[in-house]
């Protein structure tokens, strides 16, 4: 049965290890739901990442932390039910950074007692394993049972949510076609960004570049990302060093904004790259809108994505992007006039594209900048994107 769009009690469950795009999305969604008259609470399962965020504190949102030890999947059905019965939400929303986040036990508890249960799928799952593998040196063909197990494991997680919302067409297509998620309950609400806040600003550009030691003649390649293996930052460092070596007369800089588990490894790689003096680890930021305008080129070297907020924010800030066409990225960089879209895994092509981007004339770069921003303003304004997501949550069917 469909719900009327009236004020509801909504509980958002978040599982995160660090601040990133999915967490920014949760903050924006919370503020949107509040503005539409709903009562919203957030429960962090495990590591507290959202607790204390000024964007939530300023609007009076309660952020609870549930100690789920090191494995959310080990939490019993009874404990999930106890938590949700105590909060008594009308709607439960599970924000999933990956399709495997949560558990069947959580799904059962969330979908019980007439609640509406919604999941948000932020990222394409890892590529499906091949159908056949080869055993022994004789290369005897053998069915790849991991392919079967993964399909079943993912499919099970699609059974109980009343509505499954994907941040890009790519994520939905993958889940429906590869893992047989129910098409009638799987929807798309694309990510968006605040095009007023993320915009080209001369004063922000000057301030950011001064902080980095960049001159007006420097060409700054930038990335804002978690330092995580799926972001491909090691490859970006190697690519930057190669491009810089071929253009010794250009003042090329690479600025990496963020932190994460690979930071020490990436710093060591940068030190050995031959371009250590031009690679800056700028640390994390709570004001990315003040950072993007300082970039001349945004580099997205990710191996897996859904529809990355960092790409939307950079382009809204007037920064053209060089990116791999993973997940929903081709839905954004859909025209060669707004950036460079490279087939995943084509490392040499990515390097050539980055080289082309940094050697543009100022006039050509300005044209890319205008086209990139216009693309986001026209199709990825968060006001419209978040309104669609909120409407899908508000009208999610109940379990009775």
Textual characterization of the structure:
The chain has 400 residues and is α/β, with parallel strands linked by helices. The chain has 2 domains: 197 residues, Rossmann fold (3-Layer(aba) Sandwich); 178 residues, Rossmann fold (3-Layer(aba) Sandwich), CATH 3.40.50. 37% of the residues lie in helices and 18% in strands. The strands form 3 sheets. The protein has a 7-stranded parallel beta sheet. Strands 12-11-10-13-14-15 form a 6-stranded parallel beta sheet, with helices on both faces. Strands 6-7 form a two-stranded antiparallel ribbon. β1, α1 and β2 form a beta-alpha-beta unit. The mean pLDDT is 92.
Individual helix count: 14
The CATH topology of the largest domain corresponds to Rossmann fold
Identify the strand order in the major beta sheet: 3-2-1-4-5-8-9
Per CATH, which architecture of the largest domain?
3-Layer(aba) Sandwich
**Share of helix, binned:** 25-40%
Quickly give the structural class: alpha/beta
Helix and strand pattern: EHEHEHEHEEEHEHEHEHEHEEHEHEHHH
């Amino acid at each position: 049965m469909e719900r009327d769009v009236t004020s509801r009690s909504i509980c958002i469950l978040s599982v995160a290890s660090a601040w990133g795009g999915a967490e920014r999305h949760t903050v924006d969604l919370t503020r949107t739901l509040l503005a539409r008259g709903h009562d919203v609470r957030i429960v962090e399962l495990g590591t507290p990442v959202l607790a204390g965020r000024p964007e939530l504190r300023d609007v009076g949102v309660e952020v609870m932390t549930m100690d789920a030890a090191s494995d959310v999947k080990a939490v019993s059905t009874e404990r999930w039910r106890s938590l949700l019965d105590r909060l008594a939400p009308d709607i439960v929303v599970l924000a999933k950074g990956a399709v495997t986040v949560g558990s069947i036990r959580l799904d059962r508890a969330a979908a019980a007692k007439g609640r509406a249960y919604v999941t948000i799928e932020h990222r394409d799952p890892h590529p499906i394993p091949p159908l056949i593998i080869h055993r022994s040196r004789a290369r005897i063909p053998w069915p790849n049972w991991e392919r079967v197990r993964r399909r079943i494991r993912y499919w099970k997680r699609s059974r109980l949510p009343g509505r499954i919302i994907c941040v890009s067409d790519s994520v939905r297509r993958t889940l429906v076609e590869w893992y047989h998620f129910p098409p009638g309950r799987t929807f798309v609400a694309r990510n968006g960004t605040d095009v007023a806040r993320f915009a080209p600003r001369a004063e922000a550009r000057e301030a950011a570049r001064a902080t980095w030691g960049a001159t007006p003649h420097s060409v700054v390649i930038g990335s804002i990302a978690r330092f995580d293996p799926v972001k491909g930052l090691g490859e970006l460092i190697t690519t930057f060093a190669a491009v810089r070596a071929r253009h010794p007369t250009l003042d090329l800089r690479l600025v990496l904004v963020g932190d994460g588990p690979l930071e020490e490894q990436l710093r060591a790689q940068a030190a050995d790259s031959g371009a250590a003096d031009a690679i800056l680890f700028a640390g994390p930021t709570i004001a990315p809108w003040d950072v993007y305008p300082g970039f001349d080129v945004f580099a997205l070297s990710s191996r897996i994505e859904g529809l990355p907020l960092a790409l939307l924010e950079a382009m809204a800030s007037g920064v053209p992007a060089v990116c791999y066409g993973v997940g929903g990225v081709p839905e954004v960089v859909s025209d060669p006039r707004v950036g460079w879209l490279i087939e995943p895994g084509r490392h040499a092509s990515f390097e050539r594209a980055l080289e082309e981007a940094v050697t543009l004339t100022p006039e050509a770069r300005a044209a890319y900048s205008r086209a990139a921003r216009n693309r986001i303003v026209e199709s990825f304004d968060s006001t419209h994107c978040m309104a669609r997501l909120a409407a899908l949550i508000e009208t999610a069917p109940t379990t009775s």
